[in-house]
Write a structure and sequence with these properties.
SDR_fam, 7 strands, 7-stranded parallel β-sheet, about 300 residues, about 35% helix, about 15% strand, globular, Rossmann fold
């Protein structure tokens, strides 16, 4: 019997020869070429309880090297969490917090109008908010809990992105980036993660459309790997693979929002991949349409008869 390999998920999804589970020099946010010091960055998915540790940790590399970072979170049922306008919880020029119920279009528009008025037009949006949803076979879930997963994971990303682009415009004067967090389950059919997998697949497709319809904005889906969070605790079979540092997707997000990454726009990126190797395969990625989703098979064969 072969020995269990805790890194088999990383190796099985490797696009580069060198892969990582921990931060590495090329994505260190203190590198001059990765500086975010003149950008307004909006990140959704920061909760009061910090229930999803990956959200807090994955943005840490950005928060210390950005001029203005806005943490955006959903309103909870606790009325003490309600708020209008921006709430400064650290001194000016440091991270700020804004509460909004993102699935509501009006809330998204209002939030981004206030962001622009207070800080200027944002240049980076990181759609980090999301839920795992019911961890059970699809039809064992109630209609409400199944559908709510798509409301949070898909509708909220749509409304936030729509409000963001309304402020930036279709042809921003400065480099503008949208990064939406996706996951490995969007690539296959993992057990008991039906609505989560389905919603992530929808985000992948939505991002491809963003790239097509807004070519002057860089749009990516970023897979953070398997990070030990409350979500992975709910899925026992994922725990042996939860070896990825939450700082890894944070650094990769910084890299994606820096420099010319147009060749990756509309595509799926995993945090474990070596960014130097990704850059080296720029031409191949474009010519062969790599890192995109499509139906597998051989199509358009010769000598086809159609009745």
């Amino acid at each position: 019997m072969s020995e269990f390999d805790q890194l088999s998920n990383v190796k099985g999804t490797a696009f580069t020869h060198q892969c990582y589970t921990q931060p590495y020099p090329a994505i260190t946010p203190t590198r001059p070429e990765l500086a975010q010091t003149v950008k307004v960055i909006v990140i959704t998915g920061v909760t009061r309880e910090i229930g999803q540790k990956v959200v807090i940790n994955s943005i840490t590399p950005i928060e210390f090297y950005a001029q203005d970072v806005l943490y955006c979170r959903k309103l909870s049922s606790d009325p003490r969490d309600e708020g209008t306008g921006l709430r400064n919880f650290i001194r000016t020029g440091q991270p700020r917090c804004h509460c909004a119920h993102w699935p509501l279009n009006a809330a998204g528009n209002k939030a981004f109008q206030e962001i622009t008025a207070e800080l200027g037009v944002p240049q980076v949006l990181i759609n980090n908010a999301g839920v795992a949803g019911p961890v059970k076979p699809n039809l064992k879930a109630s209609v409400e809990e199944w559908w709510n997963t798509l409301v949070v994971n898909v509708k909220a990303i749509f409304t936030v992105t729509k409000a963001f682009v309304k402020e930036t415009g279709a042809t921003p004067a400065k480099q503008t980036t949208i990064i939406s967090i996706t996951s490995m389950p969007s690539q296959g059919v993992p057990p008991v993660l039906g609505p989560y997998s389905t919603s992530n697949a929808a985000v992948n497709k939505f991002t491809a459309y963003l790239n097509s319809e807004y070519p002057n904005i860089n749009s990516f889906v970023l897979d953070p790997g398997v990070v030990r969070t409350d979500t992975t605790l709910d899925v026992p079979y994922l725990m042996p693979y939860a070896n990825d540092s939450p700082l890894l997707p944070g650094g990769t997000a910084v890299w994606l929002s820096s420099g010319d990454k147009k060749y990756l726009s509309g595509r799926y990126i995993m945090s474990s991949w070596n960014v130097k190797e990704i850059e080296a395969r720029k031409g191949e990625t474009h010519e062969c349409n790599l890192l995109t989703f499509a139906l597998k098979g051989e199509f358009g064969l010769g000598n086809i008869k159609v009745d």
